[in-house]
Amino acid sequence: MSSEAPGTVRPGGRTARVREAVLRAAGDALAEHGFDRLDLADVARRAGVGKTTVYRRWGTVPGLVADLLADMAEQSLPRTETGTLIGDLRANARLVRRTLTDPRQGRLFKAIIAAATCDARTAEALHRFYAARIREWAPCVEQAVARGELPEGTDPHEVIRAVSAPLYYRLLASGDPLDEAAADRAAEAAATAAKAGVFVR
């Protein structure tokens, strides 16, 4: 087995095609059946590759899920720049909302989050995924500080977390509608709090 951790190698050619097929199959299986029923042999069958290929490259279900999350972070849409804080935060909230309400992606995130509560390696991979997304969007807060829209010392990461947290609450806890109006309210609440200095370090 390779000494590289799953998700750290970015191969090309046939190896890249195999990785893409396996990760797509793993995402489909997770969305359909959840983490507990994710099986490497089933993923290999779905992807049309040999079981030994999957076991050799990923080794375990958590290893495969970690690589899936790394790939999802890479494939996420880039940050939108509108020129205003509220415009940027609204774009972020609407992107999160579209992802969570997508029939496949929403089920996939629910399965991974559930798995992360009882599997340390999956939890670590999930933390890396969200850290990458927060880093991607943090510059919109930094730019707002530079424009004078926000007070000096505002923590960019905390502002971005404040945008998505209410949306995940609706997805995972309350079951309230996760519509565009909810996304816009989350962005507006985060922007208002940030302007009031709530997120100043």
UniProtKB/TrEMBL annotation:
DNA-binding region: 39-58
Keywords: DNA-binding, Transcription, Transcription regulation
MF annotations from Gene Ontology: DNA-binding transcription factor activity; transcription cis-regulatory region binding
Pfam families: TetR_C_11 (PF16859), TetR_N (PF00440)
Domain HTH tetR-type residue range list: 16-76
Tagged with keyword Transcription regulation: yes
InterPro entries in alphabetical order: Homeodomain-like_sf, HTH-type_TetR-like_transc_reg, HTH_TetR, Tet_transcr_reg_TetR-rel_C_sf, TetR_C
PROSITE patterns: HTH_TETR_2
Superkingdom of origin: Bacteria
The protein's name in its UniProt record: AcrR family transcriptional regulator
Naturally occurring in which organism (per UniProt): Thermomonospora cellulosilytica
